[in-house]
Amino acid sequence: MNQNLNEPRHPWMRLTASARTVRDERDVTAPYGFATRVAALALAQERKVTSLFERFALRAVGIACLLALGSVALNYGALMSGPAGAPAGAMANVDDVLLPNTDAVAVVLDIAD
Amino acid sequence: MPDEAAPAFDLAGCLDRVRQRDQAAARDLVDHLYPLVIRIVRSHLPRRVAEEDLAQEVFMKMFTRLAQYQGAVPFPHWVSRIAVTTCIDHLRAQKRRPEFRWADLSENEADVLDAVMTNENDVQANDAMAAHELVHKLLGQLKPDDQLVVRLLDLEQKTIAEIAAITGWNQSLIKVRAFRARRKLRKLFQELQRKERS
User: Fold this and answer.
1) Interface contact A66, partner B, CB < 8 A
2) What is the DSSP track for chain B?
3) Which residues numbered 21-60 in A keep a CB inside 8 Å of some CB on B?
4) Chain B residues lying within 8 Å of A51, measured CB to CB
5) What per-residue confidence (pLDDT) applies to B2?
6) Taking a C-beta distance cutoff of 8 angstroms, is the pair B135, B100 a contact?
7) Are B87 and B44 in contact (CB under 8 A)?
8) pLDDT of B60
9) A54, B82, B84, B132: least surrounded by Cβ within 10 Å?
10) What is the pLDDT of residues B134-185, one digit of tens each?
11) Is the pLDDT of residue A22 over 90?
């Protein structure tokens, strides 16, 4: 037996040469309904992915807006009386700026003084 | 016989309409590409996988990735790459390859194999089907990638450049795989000759 597989007389080459003569007579047209099913599935899948994204994206934007408005409303007072309105020298004592006026301990200490 | 008067399929126009989510165009595209896809699927069909299921998987991938198609290669080539890689993925999933044994061959297949190994004659025309089955069983002993290369080279008689176009692999890689596959086949023949027909 020839050892080189590329050799035309090697059993492999003779087998493949013979195998090539077998013609595949099977039908190559799509079975009835195949194209319709695949097209519908493919487009439905695409729409599902898009609509899921759209739905979650819009909800996320809505929730983010509500949270932003809520946090602005809650901190409205702090924002208005924040360091922006304070004189330039006032930032030297950070505690003065950061300590809230409503701090219970600060109020007690203030009364004690 | 194809209808001579039938207009040529407008692939570019069809793709545009599919991108605009036209279901009729998507159906036409599947119908148009089905022969190409089913031929690839049939020649690389893994065991226990229905050809229609595999063809459907190929088309679903094609639609999912359609936005990625830039037109660098002709669209049928791009689809055939998807088909080939889908088949290879399925072949890889079948980790265990059945052992090739004389005892598992039909009488006719064993006769043909015996004949090609003991004489230098060509296989007789009426044994072509047995030779065809034998070739597929022998190819089944190779790794999926190697199997694909040898099948395209020796059965479909494609050139290295054509295989590169179909698979997207570079030519050196294809040559390496062909070399490795042939070495394995050579060993297999030597082993079969040593064991001989019991």
Assistant:
1) no
2) ---TTSPPP-HHHHHHHHHTT-HHHHHHHHHHHHHHHHHHHHHTPPTT--HHHHHHHHHHHHHHTGGG--SSS-HHHHHHHHHHHHHHHHHHH--PPPP--GGGS-HHHHHHHHHHHH--PPPPGGGHHHHHHHHHHHHTTS-HHHHHHHIIIIIS---HHHHHHHH---HHHHHHHHHHHHHHHHHHHHHHHHH---
3) 21-22, 24, 26, 28-31, 34-43, 45-47
4) none
5) 46
6) no
7) yes
8) 95
9) A54
10) 888 888 888 888 989 999 999 889 999 999 988 888 999 999 999 999 999 8
11) no
Contacts within 8 Å (CB) and 24+ apart, B185-194: B185/A5, B185/A12, B185/B138, B185/B141, B185/B142, B185/B150, B186/A3, B186/A5, B188/B100, B188/B138, B188/B141, B189/A1, B189/A10, B189/A11, B189/A12, B189/B117, B192/B100, B192/B102, B192/B113, B192/B117, B193/A1, B193/B117
Q: Whole-angstrom Cα distance, residue B76 to residue B157?
A: 19
Average pLDDT, chain B: 86
Residue A20 forms contact with B (CB below 8 Å): yes
Question: Encoding tokens for residue A68?
Answer: 């932003």
pTM of the model: 0.67
* Residue entry with tokens 């036409």: B28
Query: Which residues in chain B have Cβ-Cβ distances shorter than 8 Å to A18?
Result: 122-123, 125, 127-128, 131-132
The pLDDT of residue B1: 43
Q: What is the pLDDT of residue A44?
A: 86
